[in-house]
Amino acid sequence: MQNILIVDDNAPLARFTRSFVLSRICDVQVHLAHDALAARREFDAVAPEVVVLDVNLPDADGVALLGELAARRPGTAFVLISAEGVDDKTISRLRPLGLAGVLWKPYTAQEIADVVRRALDGSALLRRSAADPDSPASVVSVDPEHMKAELSAILAELFELRAILAQATSEQGVRQIVDSRVEPLIDSVQRLAKVARSLGTDSR
């Protein structure tokens, strides 16, 4: 059973987000916190694999809190949510700390489920990498069936993204899609390529 922590001062939205995740992802427990103080307490108590974190909290800056929590437990995956978005520089700075995605409010049930699922998939990889960053096996499972399944999921996501991007009507909309969905795909491809190289396999 994997643990997910949702940190959002908007209690009704946090509850909706929990229901979205539980309705679409099996074998997870979802915990809620509505401020930084409660987030720290829950984080230490349940050691979540994924933290869904609002950027604007009443008692802390969500970006700063992400850095604090990442230092407490390296290998945790984070998803930032915000009504105002997150700038590219901040996203680049947070990716090495475990940032797995960014979502604009309001988001759909499918959007939050998709990004949390990808974060869950990556959290074990992050933990193994944090424990032994030089080990090729720590990057991703070397099981061929797992690799084929991940590649199939990446291809399916790319086809879906092509349709979504075709309907995007603004530069801001395109950038949000890139931040929340394209960048995690790039990370996944890079992990698979590293494993393929470690196995002596041509990854092209």
SSE blueprint and pairings:
Layout lengths: L1 E6 L3 H14 L3 E6 L2 H11 L3 E5 L1 E2 L2 E2 H11 L4 E6 L5 H7 L4 E6 L4 H23 L12 H24 L3 H28 L6
Helix pairs in contact: 1-5, 6-7
The CATH superfamily is: Response regulator
User: Structural class of the secondary elements?
Assistant: alpha/beta
Alpha plus pi helix count: 7
**Tell me, what is the CATH class?**
Alpha Beta
Spans where pLDDT lies below 50 across 5 or more residues: 133-143
* Biggest sheet strand line-up: 2-1-3-6-7
From the 3D structure, determine the CATH topology. Answer: Rossmann fold
Radius of gyration: 17 Å
Q: Find the count of extended strands (DSSP E, 2+ residues).
A: 7
Main beta-sheet strand count, sense and barrel state:
5 strands, parallel
Quickly count the domains.
1
Topology pattern, helix = H, strand = E: EHEHEEEHEHEHHH
